[in-house]
Write a structure and sequence with these properties.
Order of helices and strands: EHEHHHHEEHEEEHEEHHEEEHEEHEHEEH
Largest sheet: 8 strands, mixed
Number of domains: 2
CATH superfamily of the largest domain: Acetylglutamate kinase-like
Oligomer: single chain
Radius of gyration: 24 Å
CATH topology of the largest domain: Carbamate kinase
Strand order of the largest sheet: 3-5-2-1-8-10-11-9
Structural class: alpha/beta
CATH class of the largest domain: Alpha Beta
Shape: globular
Length: about 450
């Protein structure tokens, strides 16, 4: 068995669904299971419809209905297929009516609301597959064994799901039936719809693959795989042939928008390979994510960046020679629920980076008891994923790039994973640094 996951842009309309069917046809001998996201921007449209219902009292699912009805027409499907989705559209309208009356959107209701995107997409896709002689069955995730806790918007699957999923899906693939399953959603023990949160539909796919001991997971997106840099910054960025789970997780965490680290966890546990492919360019080789990789490579695998970061410098000469400084600092961070990204320390100082979402005034006031605090906004993290055995070389060449660009490095950190080296520059300088590093490690062809 293999698991094939297609994201929203890959099933954005009738033409894209037709294209997906051509890709799936090439893999039928490998007993595929499909996991689909909502079509295009459907999830955003659902949330906009709820906001409109709350703010103005207007109840309308016309935009969502129009997109899916148009897809049915584009695919030349029997008009009866429209009858398969009409009950869901009516259910959606009733939900929006309730939201307009209550004037609020709770976590429980939001999960119910956004589930309609995936539930509609699998029904239309499965209908088309059947129409082109690919025996398929649309399945809501709970009918494929997904039973979760009741932590709305960030649900976790219950242990029983791992036995239920293969028990329900393997007999279907053995019969030559293509299960087409909703990503991102589940139901709790009370039958209430939940969403899996971080990693979304990718996580649904990796859970199925891990539970069923699949040969591989194919994650089909709109890029040629994991690239050596963000193509919006470096247009000639190249796909990376293979990365380890750890390298892929670090890349994702520090800005590469390909596969969420949370989504890879099931495959990391089972050792299931992940293949990232481009549904718009299926001939491209893509990137394999593996437990380990062999073969000779350059010192750097990829360069990525994350902007809108806050740098906090905490210094206390009063704590020189005394224990408890770091404990006091991080107790205050825990008190306000603030998560740290990067960290550099000495005996009396700590520098950390944070997302810019936090209100840091209360934290700074507390820390002022033991230290001086300087908060610097508008910073960016530039991260190099590479060969730890060549870290000295990577650092030397990276700093040479920054010197040539006349860009000061404000903080340096090497992660405990030992596959990443990160440093801080100003937001406005990040793109230039990424371009410079890419030229140094990839375009100049140095080994």
């Amino acid at each position: 068995m293999i698991v094939m996951k297609f994201g929203g842009s890959s099933v954005a309309d009738g033409e894209r669904i037709r294209h997906v069917a051509e890709i799936v046809k090439q893999e039928l001998k490998r007993k595929p299971v499909l996991v689909l996201s909502a079509m295009g921007d459907t999830t955003d449209h659902l949330l906009e419809a709820a906001d409109r219902a709350i703010q103005t009292g207007v109840v309308s699912a016309d935009r969502i209905a129009g997109l899916h009805i148009k897809a049915i027409q584009e695919l030349g499907l029997n008009p009866a297929v429209r009858g398969d989705i009409e009950p869901l559209l009516e259910e959606l309208r009733n939900l929006l009516l309730g939201i307009s009356m209550i004037k609020e959107l709770t976590g429980k209701t939001k999960d119910y609301l956004v589930s309609f995107g995936e539930r509609l997409s699998v029904r239309i896709a499965a209908a088309y597959f059947n129409a082109v002689s690919i025996p398929a069955r649309a399945m809501d995730a709970w009918d494929a064994g997904f039973i979760s806790d009741s932590n709305f918007s960030s649900a976790e699957l219950l242990k029983e799901s791992w036995d239920r999923i293969p028990r329900l899906l393997i007999p279907l693939t053995d019969q030559g039936i293509l299960p087409v399953i909703t990503g991102f959603i589940a139901k709790d023990g009370n039958g209430t719809i939940t969403t899996l949160g971080r990693g979304g539909s990718d996580r649904s796919a990796t859970i199925i693959a891990s539970a069923c001991k699949a040969e591989e997971v194919q994650v089909w997106k709109d890029v040629d795989g994991i690239l050596t840099a963000d193509p919006r910054i470096v247009p000639n960025a190249q796909p990376v042939e293979a990365v380890t789970y750890e390298e892929a997780a670090e890349l994702a965490y520090f800005g590469a928008q390909v596969l969420h680290p949370w989504a890879m966890r099931p495959c990391m546990k089972s050792g299931t390979p992940v293949l990232v492919k481009n549904s718009y360019n299926p001939k491209a080789l893509g990137t394999r994510i593996l437990p380990s990789r062999e073969g000779k490579t350059g010192p750097v695998l990829a360069v990525t960046s994350r902007q809108h970061v806050t740098l906090v410098d905490i210094v206390s000469t009063r704590m020189l020679g005394q224990y408890g400084f770091l404990q006091a600092v991080f107790s205050d961070f825990a008190k306000y629920g603030i998560s740290v990204d990067m960290l550099a320390t000495s005996e009396v100082s700590v520098s950390v980076t944070l997302d810019s979402i936090y209100d840091l005034e209360p934290l700074a006031a507390d820390l002022a008891r033991i230290a001086s605090v300087e908060i610097k906004t508008g910073r960016a993290i530039v991260t190099i994923i590479g060969d730890v055995r060549r870290s000295s070389e990577i650092l030397r060449r990276s700093f040479e790039v920054c010197v040539k660009l006349d860009i000061p490095v404000q903080m340096v950190s090497q992660g405990a994973s030992k596959v990443n080296i990160s440093f801080i520059v100003n937001d406005t300088q990040a793109a230039e640094v990424v371009k410079g590093l890419h030229r140094e490690f990839f375009e100049n062809r140095k080994k």
